[in-house]
UniProtKB/TrEMBL annotation:
<dbReference type="InterPro" id="IPR024370">
    <property type="entry name" value="PBP_domain"/>
</dbReference>
<keyword id="KW-0732">Signal</keyword>
<protein>
    <submittedName>
        <fullName>PUTATIVE PHOSPHATE ABC TRANSPORTER</fullName>
    </submittedName>
</protein>
<dbReference type="InterPro" id="IPR050811">
    <property type="entry name" value="Phosphate_ABC_transporter"/>
</dbReference>
<feature type="domain" description="PBP">
    <location>
        <begin position="20"/>
        <end position="262"/>
    </location>
</feature>
<dbReference type="Pfam" id="PF12849">
    <property type="entry name" value="PBP_like_2"/>
</dbReference>
Amino acid sequence: MKKSPIWLIPYLIPLFLGAASLKITGASTIQPIIEKSASEYAKNHSVAFNISAGGSGKGMKDSIEHLNDIGMASRSLSAKEEQSLIKVTIGFDALAIIVNQHNPLTALTQKQVADIYSGKIREWRELGWSEGGKIMLINKEIGRSTLELFEGYSKLTHPNRPNAKLENSIAKERFDIGSNLESITLTAGMKSAIGYVSSGTADLSIKAGSPIKILSLDGIVPTKESIQSEKYPIVRGLNLAYHKNAENPEIAPFIDFILSQEGQKIVQSFGFLPITKDK
């Protein structure tokens, strides 16, 4: 019999007691916020939580097909998704380009990022790092919102997408991975690597000692000020969504908790920005 992760146990106990439940799936970027919020919320509410990642695409698909109660998406909803779902923005984040801390580069332009990921630039010496060797591309798999954001910024397309054109595609020589943690782990472990992840997650990882660093894009570093002003080129909302015909009465109270002052402090504790700018 497969055992549940240990961190799920406090959330699942109420389920065995006949309490209400919430199933939440989707973006790995948002998952830590929801796990912490669920832990705090469960202290005063008899609700069992079942929380899992899988990507924004999965979260929205699950919500549309009534396979969850709430979906997590670290991107905007598509027009098709908005036909069926109600979206609630709980915070803001940015997409950061990361490299190993041994990499001497501090900045890239949009064109340089596109040339690196298309394979036009294959070695770090072409950007001034003579000892860098061949560039190792850390990319995201289809279904991840970070990939979609990166595609929008770089003007490149994942080669496995339908009708992808070779001249505008991400290079074939790459590592396709899922979560932000995987990308950070690989970039930290390979001096020649480059990847892209949530800036909030990257900041926390750096503070925890991960040997990576964030590069500025087009001369702008992803800071609180540059993200709130949207001067940084890749800003995104962190969204929860549920079906317009959802009947679970626990959905609204839990989302209200995340939007409360206490909930927004949890959002900020993970390096993200709250929905209201500081006054």
